[in-house]
Amino acid sequence: MSFARPWATSAPRRIGCMPSLFLRRTLTSSPTKGGAWQWRRWQRTAAVASVSLGIGGYVVYNHDTAYLVAASLRRCSIAAKVTCQVSWDYYRNFPDLPSDGDSAEEQQRVLAKRSAVHLRSAERVRAALMKNGGVYIKLGQHISAMQYVLPAEWCETMQPLQDQNTASSLKDVDHVIFRDLGQHIEEMFSDFDAEPIGVASLAQVHRAVLRETGEEVAVKVQHPMVRTYSDIDIATVSVMFEFIHSVFPDFKFMWLSAEMRGSLPQELDFRNDKSNAERVEWNFAQHPDIPLAVPKMIRASERVLIMEYVNGRRCDDLRYLRLNSIDPAEVSREIGRVFAEMTYVHGFLHCDPHPGNLFVRPRDGRRTTHGHNFDLVLLDHGLYRHLSPRFRYEYAEMWHALMKGDTEKIKHWSRRLSGTDLYILFSTILTGQNWSAIETKSLAKSTAPAHFSVGSMMKQHPDILRQITDVLSSVPPVLLLVLKTNDLLRMVDQKLFADQPLAVQQHAQLRTWMRISHYCLVAIRNARSQDIHHSVSRAGFLQTASRIGRLTMNWITFWIYDAALSLYSAALSIEDVFIRWRAKLAL
């Protein structure tokens, strides 16, 4: 019996006069090869299906881990992309500074091109930071505060990041509260505003009413994924800075990522907010004349903080200050006193004093112990630094030398603090003023503005940015945060006096220097008093008399200098009254 084979009748027609031997081999081997190919295809399909099912099963049973890996890769790729873009842009398009022999038109063209690269790069980086959010927003906020370190294009471009943050959903907020405190929103609060009253890079704040007590509170809730991503985000930022440094050796901003690595764990644990706030309140309980208010802390976990709700507005809201008859000059003075006390006396410094963390609350001055018609409300107590007595003394001596224009002492104390010989640059970064104002001993006397600008300095000294990074990479970490705090306070002062006559602004600057001088004298007096007490080992009559004499002279010297500062400050205040009066008459 024979069976018909479909391929036997049609194949010869396709191959024509092919030899019979080759034809037999082809015809007999075709079914075998076709079956093997089909088998291999099914094997590959089964393997792909198995792997797909395995991956799918892993994702289903380990959804959080898989999502974290995918999201982390996405965030890293965004950071890597912008790092390469910015590095390439600077490498290809950033020209050297023009020489003195170039024409004015050529100099303007070069400076405009440099500014365009700065601006373009800063905008790219800001867009990437906003995409990633969280820690990256915090990095942008750090950059925006470095006005006396980075070009203006970078600082101004990053400034919106102080306020532009994405809020977490109410569902996510409820999830964080339940995970940390064991209760849902409706179980803990009789009222809870769905719209946050403030959104920051790490957390957001809601107004609420406690169900048990009926007390109106503010609830600070951490964004749910910030802690999850924080480690890999900091590692990515560090690698990013190292890569830029490898391309541009003069770029030495690795200290910025190192500072964030040290600060972020403290800021992410809200129990630190509670303990820091309570310590500040205790420190200032001895100063009823200072109108500082710290919200009462009610309950804290790692990611949730419940505190007293405080009415008020940002300290730089000039319209709000005018509506409540609050003098911006008084607000500026009291902010300066608060942070000078922290720096030179308490040694416990709030290191994030931007306007969003400094509120003003109207009060009836006749019913307060401090006599002012406002309270200065200090918020966000996550980032503090302890300043050792030795650091406070050396820092005070440095400022005292700057006020006196004593170049030799400036060199000495600059070396002690910064660890470099670049005392001129360190002095300008510290004061925000040009060296000429310091060298001529006119820092606390002249009313002419002479602000330090990285852009203007780069025109005169092309190597200035490298020198700045050398200084900042050499100073101790605590001094970096003190410098950042100084810059933020200067920004606050500029906003508070933005609508005042020029002479009033200049007097405000002078009073700032005098206030610093006063607290420097206090710190130096206290340190020298301690030295005198510890320098006498025996308690004989002559030793005791010598110690009393030296202590007396130490106090007399302090009071003489301090009295002169107080008289000068009073004279400026009287002059300000006449200046404002003349300005009103002119209108």
Describe the SSE topology.
Layout: H1 6-15, H2 20-61, H3 63-93, H4 104-132, H5 135-144, H6 152-158, H7 170-181, H8 185-188, E1 189-192, E2 198-199, E3 203-210, E4 216-222, H9 226-247, H10 254-267, H11 270-284, E5 292-293, E6 297-300, E7 304-308, E8 313-314, H12 318-323, H13 328-346, E9 348-350, E10 358-362, E11 374-378, E12 384-386, H14 389-404, H15 407-418, H16 423-431, H17 435-439, H18 454-460, H19 464-474, H20 477-496, H21 502-535, H22 541-586
Parallel strand pairs: 5-11
Antiparallel strand pairs: 1-3, 2-3, 3-4, 4-7, 6-7, 8-10, 9-12, 10-11
Helix pairs in contact: 2-3, 3-4, 3-9, 4-5, 4-6, 5-6, 9-10, 13-20, 13-21, 14-15, 14-21, 15-16, 21-22
